[in-house]
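Contributing new complexes? Match this layout with hypoxanthine.
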Amino acid sequence: MDYSYEYFKISADYVKSIVPYEPEIGIILGSGLGNFATEIENPIIIDYKDIPNFLVSTVQSHAGKLIFGELEGKKIVCMAGRFHFYEGYDFEQLVIPIRLFKLIGVKKTILTNAAGAVNTDYNVGDIMIVKDHIKLNGASPLCGKNIEEFGPRFFDVTDMYTKSLREVALKCAEGSGLATHEGVYMFFTGPQFETPAEIRAARILGADAVGMSTVTEALTAAHCSMPLLALSVMTNMAAGVLDCKLSDEEVGIAAAKIADRFASYVKKIIANI
Ligand code: HPA
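Output block (do not edit by hand):
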């Protein structure tokens, strides 16, 4: 489907008719990292299903709500529940959340996700600040007719994960008790976890972690020149690293274990960007 600028504007106009301010920071929460949303002050909550031309979350660990409010004295909007290719959406549909952010005035975006650690120096519970990504699977979300109001047809992604935001994230990790790395995130479509051979290939290609989200949102942010920070929580060692099977349950347990410390960390970042 070829979307028009008007298509995205209809969603934004609906949201703007409810929220009387422009949020400065937009955050998309990854699997099991949704606790964070309960800390937002003076919340205004909008169900995805009420927003025209928006999508609905089909994954149980993703709430499906847009939450506006304040945190650390800043106006923010938080997407509790994201959309993934494996749910059956086309890559081109996955531009919708970030374009909504852009149109309602968001100036900086933070993406969070649960990921499998490919780098064997990483441990479960570590944080990876994404410095670059590898996406060899599937189409670009920016395929189709280009919408010039958002950005140019061809665009640079060299500095997609904004260096100054990564520096703040590294600094905020000091004294947090969280082991933090800067690394490369590799996208796989899911919903199956990767094979051990895919993980060995990912490691050879330079990946430090793998996951099923984030890159489409990052590319959409780059297209519309939105400064971006992406944080991966290592919820498991990737397939074949340890002699065990992977499960969504294990991912959820690991995410829940770190959720509070991770929320404090993200709050500190919000205060400092
Ligand atoms: N692979 C892909 N996505 C994931 C993983 C993984 O190992 N862990 C959490 N999300």
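Reviewers usually confirm one structural detail per submission. For this one: Residues 114-116, 188, 193-194, 210-212, 235-236, 238, 246, 251 surround hypoxanthine (CB under 6 Å).
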